[in-house]
Amino acid sequence: MKYTSNITIDRLKLCYTVDTTIAKEFWEMTTESNFGNFKISPEIKRVPPHQKSYNIQLYSPTKKSDWIDFATMSFGSKMDNEETLKKETQYVWIELYNKVLYTSTTTDKNQSIAKYIFDITDSLSFDLNNITRLEIAYDCYKNMANRIKRAIMNKNFVPIVNGKAQFDITKVIDDVLFIRTINQLRFKTMSLYVRPKANKQISLKAYDKGCEITKKKKEYVKDYIGMTDNFFRAEISLQNEPIKEYLNKTKTDVQTFLDNVLMNEDFRTQIFSYYSNRLLRFRTPDGLKSVLDI
């Protein structure tokens, strides 16, 4: 089925707390551990050097007798010194592989297997501490970067960038950047970036997603969202602090937020609009318009 638009999660990194005793068991792990519907194995690479990295595999809910790479897991502290072991809990980070976010469950083609993170972390007795990194993507057949460029250059519109109206049409808007690829014949693709200098934890990007899929061979993205190669994306990237601000403002706990953002497309649309409006919107003769409205 072909959709005119679609909104998905493109990146998800979560921070949990875990009892130090459990963390130490993982630190001392040298071989794969099987937990039934998932298994965890230590990896050789260590980035940064004081961390250990682990690979989580999920018993595929879409195929029989098959395991799929689900996420990476790492601890923030060494488990081999007395000061660390005196603490009751430790921090552990889990980041889902990109393909997991675009792999459907057997019961709902519009729901990704990312939801199994709840089963895994419950089994491991991990408590959600924060959402370290979240990227929400809006895909459509409109060239979002071009549309935003035209809106910014429309003298009947007033761009509102990071909450400040830009009334001086001659003033350079420092936080908005356009980048174009080029060959010796002509300009090719164009991408838009809104990156506030005062807040590095939030940004907006608009670009040719179909072109990127072809280059990076991510056909699974196209298959999951049901769109052809020729489509475009606007993407909100968030780190922990702006998410915490939203949670405090709306009096929402982080677990409820994660449940909703994973399971509810309407909620993802709401969150995308909330943050994109903080970064860029327009005052027009017909009223305020978001980047999704132009």
Account of the 3D structure:
The chain is an alpha+beta fold and about 290 residues long. The protein has 2 domains: about 10-130, no CATH class; about 135-290, no CATH class. About 25% of the residues lie in helices and about 35% in strands. The chain contains 9 helices and 15 strands. Helix 8 packs across helix 9. The two termini are about 25 Å apart.
Give the CA-based shape: globular
Radius of gyration: 21 Å
Helix content: 25-40%
Strand/helix succession: EHEEEEHEHEHEEEEEHHEHHHEE
Which residues sit in consecutive blocks of at least 5 with pLDDT less than 50? none
Round the mean pLDDT to the nearest integer and report it.
90
In terms of structural class, how would the helical and strand content be classed? alpha+beta
Q: In angstroms, what separates the terminal alpha carbons? A: 25 Å
What is the total domain count?
A: 2
- Number of continuous helical runs: 9
What percentage of the residues does DSSP assign to strands (E)? 35-45%
Strand segment count: 15
Biggest sheet details? 11 strands, antiparallel
Arrangement of strands in the largest sheet: 2-3-4-5-6-1-7-13-12-11-10
Set out the fold topology.
Blueprint: E1 5-19, H1 20-27, E2 33-34, E3 38-42, E4 53-59, E5 67-75, H2 82-86, E6 89-96, H3 117-123, E7 127-140, H4 144-152, E8 158-161, E9 164-165, E10 176-182, E11 187-194, E12 202-207, H5 209-216, H6 219-225, E13 232-239, H7 240-250, H8 254-263, H9 265-279, E14 280-284, E15 287-290
Antiparallel strand pairs: 1-6, 1-7, 2-3, 3-4, 4-5, 5-6, 7-13, 8-9, 8-14, 10-11, 11-12, 12-13, 14-15
Helix pairs in contact: 8-9
